[in-house]
């Protein structure tokens, strides 16, 4: 059973109001001797304030709600780890909920508000969070245009990836994705970079791989008729599978097919040809989300930020794009970083004598 202020008051021999005053920082209302004893007993019994009671009293609970998809990837696991770290750094606890659909997401938001969370961070919003009126500060990382407050600059990142491939002399560059409708900003970046270089693209230069019975024929058309020589892929796992498939078709990477992925998964350095990838800036996004949320909590602001914050991904140069391979040879072991973002900050998982190669 949780320890209450009433329990502490009984042990110390003071009123409940005296205990409440001390635990809420009003030390001048109790003698120094009583104050020290109250604090000592509270620590010994591991007293924690009841968030719901604090919320009902209109007081901050110093807890934040985190809403994540249950289908969590390495980059979102990294993001969750960083969010928890930065919240704890600011003295905040957290409650994690993982809804599976839009209705559950709305229920999760209401549940966190009822539990007395001071604010909520939604990592991959299914609903348009900006349009909701839930009476609690929220920060949204929705993948959909116009609905996010903080997220990675997907359009700018893919523009940069395409320009990098153009720098290697490629003019016929295709986009590979699960479904084009699910990656509007990546597609916009791809098209903008091709257009700015004066290169024309065709609708057929986008290869959708989800539920596509014509995939083999479309890929053969891109390779044999359109003579595509370079590919930007919207996630690293798909990029690795695509690389493997092209290799089975007799294509060499990067000589016949240059490839750039997105995510910055740490295992990308272990593919047959180390993967060049746009690195999801998990640490920077987590810090920005916490800063925005705490500012909203401080100012009691329930409105979306006026200007959404976009954080640029860095391009990690593996070898699949045509750059010289800079990965270590031989066998080594120094840990298991989830992403290149954590490896770049901490050196975790990679040879400490070997510098990571990033292009700003």
How would you portray this structure in words?
- The radius of gyration is 26 Å and the shape is elongated.
- It is built from twelve helices and 13 strands.
- α5 (74-89) packs across α11 (282-299).
- Residues 345-355 have low confidence and may be disordered.
- Strands 7-6-8-9-10-12-13 form a seven-stranded mixed beta sheet, with helices on both faces. The protein has a four-stranded parallel beta sheet with strand order 2-1-3-4, with helices on both faces. A two-stranded parallel ribbon has the order 5-11.
- The N and C termini lie far apart (53 Å).
- With 360 residues, the chain is of the alpha/beta class.
- It has helices at 5-12, 16-23, 32-44, 51-56, 74-89, 102-115, 154-167, 184-196, 215-224, 236-248, 282-299, 340-346; strands at residues 63-67, 93-97, 119-122, 138-140, 150-152, 173-177, 206-208, 230-233, 258-263, 276-279, 309-311, 314-316, 358-359.
């Amino acid at each position: 059973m949780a320890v209450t202020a009433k329990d502490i008051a009984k042990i110390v021999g003071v009123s409940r109001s005296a205990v409440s005053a001390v635990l809420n920082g009003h030390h001048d209302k109790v003698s120094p001797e009583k104050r020290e004893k109250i604090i000592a007993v509270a620590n010994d019994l591991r007293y924690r304030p009841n968030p719901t009671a604090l919320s009902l009293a209109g007081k901050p609970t110093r807890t934040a709600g985190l809403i994540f998809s249950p289908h969590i990837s390495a980059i979102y696991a990294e993001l969750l780890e960083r969010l928890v770290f930065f919240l704890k750094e600011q003295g905040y606890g957290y409650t994690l909920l993982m809804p599976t659909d839009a209705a559950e997401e709305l229920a999760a938001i209401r549940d966190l508000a009822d539990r007395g969370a001071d604010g909520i961070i939604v990592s991959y919003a299914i609903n348009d969070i900006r349009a909701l009126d839930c009476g609690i500060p929220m920060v949204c990382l929705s993948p959909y245009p116009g609905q996010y407050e903080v997220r990675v600059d997907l359009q700018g990142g893919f523009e940069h990836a395409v320009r990098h491939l153009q720098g290697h002399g490629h003019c016929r560059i295709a986009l590979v994705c699960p479904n084009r409708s699910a990656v509007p900003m990546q597609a916009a970046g791809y098209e903008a970079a091709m257009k700015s270089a004066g290169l024309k693209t065709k609708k057929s230069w986008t290869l959708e791989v989800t539920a596509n019975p014509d995939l083999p024929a479309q890929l053969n058309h891109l390779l044999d008729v359109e003579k595509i020589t370079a590919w930007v892929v919207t996630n690293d796992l798909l990029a690795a599978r695509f690389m493997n498939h092209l290799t089975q078709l007799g294509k060499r990477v990067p000589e016949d097919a240059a490839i750039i992925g997105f995510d910055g998964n740490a295992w990308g350095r272990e593919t047959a040809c180390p993967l060049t990838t746009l690195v999801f800036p998990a640490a920077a996004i987590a810090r920005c989300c916490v800063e925005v949320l705490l500012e909203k909590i401080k100012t009691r602001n329930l409105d979306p930020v006026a200007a959404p914050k976009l954080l640029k991904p860095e391009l990690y140069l593996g070898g699949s794009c045509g750059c010289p391979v800079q990965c270590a040879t031989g066998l080594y072991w120094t840990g298991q970083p989830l992403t290149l973002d954590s490896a770049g900050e901490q050196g975790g998982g990679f040879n400490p004598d070997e510098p990571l190669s990033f292009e700003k």
